[in-house]
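ok so i was messing around last nite and threw this chain in just to see what happens. nothing serious, just curious
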Amino acid sequence: MTNETHIPSLTNLEYFSYIDEQGQLPEIFQGKIGVYAIFDQNKSLQFVGYSRDVYLSLKQHLVRQPEQCYWVKVQTIERPNRTILENIENAWITENGSIPVGNGENKEKWTQPINVKSLMTLEEQASYQNPANDELAQIKIIKNVARRVEAEIVKLLESRGLQTQLRFNPKLKEEGLLDLKS
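result:
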């Protein structure tokens, strides 16, 4: 826990494995308010964010950027206070010496649902853009693309040992978006 006058150095915080030996995400952060730093396999800082539920945010980032989420450092606080959270976030980014890719030009990939339209195969694009298809046919095609991308993400995470259940929002799939159900 921290207070407004003491901002912990990112360097001094403990690394937590994103997926532990039991295949779970760090459940100690469930329902905790705090700031978190996400690192790749080489412990290179990828993203800094804050949340009212660090665990749910970590889960969401893992689905959106599975190749970048291997280690995490977290600082929790007692009560929600955006100023404190933003001050810690900014201090950690400054301490890093450069803006992490997830906080720069790739921020949308970390903070927004996955847009599966950009992940369509050429075959799927041709089928989607076929003038003979009505809106209902297009929705069906985009839902199938979303299911394919979801299956690829789940397979990748299972290959890393993830046991935590992932539930995607079925309503978003119709819009070509993929995100966890909150």
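not much to say yet. Residues 135-159 form the longest helix (25 residues).
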